[in-house]
Amino acid sequence: MSENRPLNNAEARAALDWYRAVGVDFAVGEEPVDRFAASAAPSRARPAPVAEAAAARPVAAAPAPIAISLTADPTETTALAAGARTLDELRAVMEAYDGCLLKKRATQLVFADGNPEAEIMLVGEGPGEQEDLQGKPFVGRAGQLLDRMLGSIGLDRSKVYIANMVPWRPPGNRDPTPEEMALCTPFLLRQVELVAPKFLVTLGNVPTKSLFRTENGITRMRGQWRDLTVGSHTMRALATLHPAYLLRTPASKALAWRDMLSLKQAIEGERA
Ligand code: URA
Predict the structure, then answer these.
(1) What 3-state class would DSSP assign to 5?
(2) What is the dihedral of CA 206, 209, 210, 215, to 10 degrees?
(3) Helices of type H across 112-177
(4) What is the DSSP letter of 226?
(5) 63-99 b/e with 16+ CB inside 10 Å = b?
(6) Where are the domains of the chain?
């Protein structure tokens, strides 16, 4: 049954909660559009050419378009990142940068957490809802599992530094697009260079493919140490499974556990 009456407060709140849960967290127009009504009365008329249709549209009613760059050019972010001499300068440059659409939808920049002097750096994919709200990476459920994984080998956030490939939340927790990755990667690479860790761990597919420059997926890449050079800095690097994946696929925790032990051995080997 469909009723044509305004929603009361509780219903409106429930609808908003539902939108948020399914990843709809951004309005593209001022007025809701009933697409079902539009498709229920299909027009047999020849569709107007785009220019004709645009000319016929009342100008004042159109919502302001959002500029989406489909051919992202990382020249600007590369130059901005290169100019940052410290992590504080890099954060300031990223706070001021407005060229990535993700920023417009996010609550805030999620720069990093942990110890910038640490020997171990972890790189995730991008902030989720909790990270976006709190401004720190890996603070939601996946982050709590990550803390337990680190704890299992005697590490905590005072002994590691954590950042993400993209520092603003992709809406609805989708993967960052290739354009968003292209724009944001220079920032992350500079962050790695400035932290200069001895060991870098990529969490899941997105940072693994990007930082190891491979099309191989995480199941093939995980568990093997490789040398990774970023700018002037070379470090040992290991890919492992993303904690969010482990929450969905607990049977894979044994593999991640092996990777954590391998990290522990590498750290101990370094200290021996
Ligand atoms: N997943 C990520 O990849 N990064 C976060 O910060 C949180 C969840």
Answers:
(1) coil
(2) -130
(3) 129-134, 141-151
(4) E
(5) eeeeeeeeebebeebbebbeebeebeebbebbeebee
(6) 75-271
Question: Number of helices and strands (H, E) in the chain?
Answer: 13, 6
Could you tell me how far CA 179 lies from the centroid of its own chain?
12
Tell me which of 113, 164, 188, 246 to substitute to probe ligand 1's pocket, judged by most ligand atoms within 8 Å of the beta carbon: 164
* DSSP 8-state secondary structure symbol assigned to residue 176: P
Choose one of 108, 113, 131, 248 to mutate for the ligand 1 pocket test, by most ligand atoms within 8 angstroms of C-beta: 131
Does 176 contact ligand 1 (Cβ within 6 A)?
Answer: no
Q: What are the tens digits of pLDDT across the range 186-235?
A: 999 999 999 999 999 999 999 999 999 999 999 999 999 999 999 999 99
Distance 51 CA to ligand 1 centre (A): 42
Tokens of 11: 């219903």
Does residue 243's CB lie within 6 angstroms of at least one atom of ligand 1? no
- Compute CA distances 201 → 17, 48, 103, 118, 205, whole Å: 35, 53, 25, 13, 12
Residue type at 253?
K
The pTM of the full predicted model, rounded to 2 decimals, is 0.78
Q: Which two tokens stand for residue 51?
A: 């220019």
How big is the CA angle at 56 (ends 50 and 62), to the nearest 5 degrees? 85
CATH number of 75-271: 3.40.470.10
